[in-house]
Amino acid sequence: MDLISLLKEEGYTKVSYIMDGEKHSKFLNQEMDADSLMKLFMKNTHMIEYFPYEAKPYLMVLQPTTSIKVLLYK
Question: Do 8 and 28 meet the contact criterion of CB atoms below 8 Å apart?
C-alpha cells in the first residue's frame, strides 16, 4: 500500500506544508496533487514518520538536509 492510499483510507483529504518559505496545500483526491506529493515524499527522503494521534495529525518527511512537517486534514 502506498502512502497516499493509506492517508485516503484514514479519511484525510488535504495536506499542507511549508517548503522554501512558502505554504503549499494539496488535495489527496486530485490526481495531479497526489502525484506531486508523492514526488516530494520520494525525493531524497530517508524516512517518513506518521503521527496520527496528535491534536493536529501530521507526517514528518526527513531528508538529508531538511525536514518537512506535513499537516493532515480530514
Answer: yes
